[in-house]
From TrEMBL:
<protein>
    <recommendedName>
        <fullName>Cytochrome c</fullName>
    </recommendedName>
</protein>
<dbReference type="InterPro" id="IPR010980">
    <property type="entry name" value="Cyt_c/b562"/>
</dbReference>
<feature type="signal peptide">
    <location>
        <begin position="1"/>
        <end position="21"/>
    </location>
</feature>
<keyword id="KW-0732">Signal</keyword>
Amino acid sequence: MKLKIAAPLFSALLAAGCQQSAPPPAVDVKTLMAGKVQPTAEIYWNSVQYISDAAGSRKIEPKTDAEWARTQEAAATLRQLGEQLRSPGAAAGRGNDWLDYAQGLSDVAKLAEQAAKERNPDKVFEVGGSIYNVCSACHEVYMTVPGGARPAEPASSGTK
Ligand code: HEC
């Protein structure tokens, strides 16, 4: 009898101890994605666009030094974000493929940086596609909410 009463108390203490000794991962991937990865990728992707509509076909591309620098900076930031995703705080509990995807992001971002440095719009555009593929590849395996790069609704919203 004594044991039965003591057991819940003991596990409660254990749980409390666990919470103290195991802090949450240093990198909150969801926040990093929404706050950094997505907006940075958008800066890069938006910098070169081929638009075809009723008004005809036209190309948007960086023109000034500042615009090219912005594109290059976005690429450099994506490279660093790939590094951050490889850090223990982000990679803990994931498979080795996580590190490969994160490395893939850094690798392709390096090409993106080079393309911007060369001021080559076609290359910026092309590498932009490769960046997207890396995002999607990791999401296919690790994003628990389905629906591509922008899971707009939390999974629980379906119950409404
Ligand atoms: C190494 C793996 C990995 C790579 C590479 C990656 N992501 Fe993610 N991303 C995730 C994971 C995991 C989630 C789900 C996070 C969660 O909900 O806890 C996510 C979620 C997101 C979300 C949803 C955030 C939210 O608020 O729910 C966006 C947007 C996103 N990623 C954009 C991108 C873009 C853009 C790229 C490429 C430039 C990219 N991701 C590359 C792993 C990755």
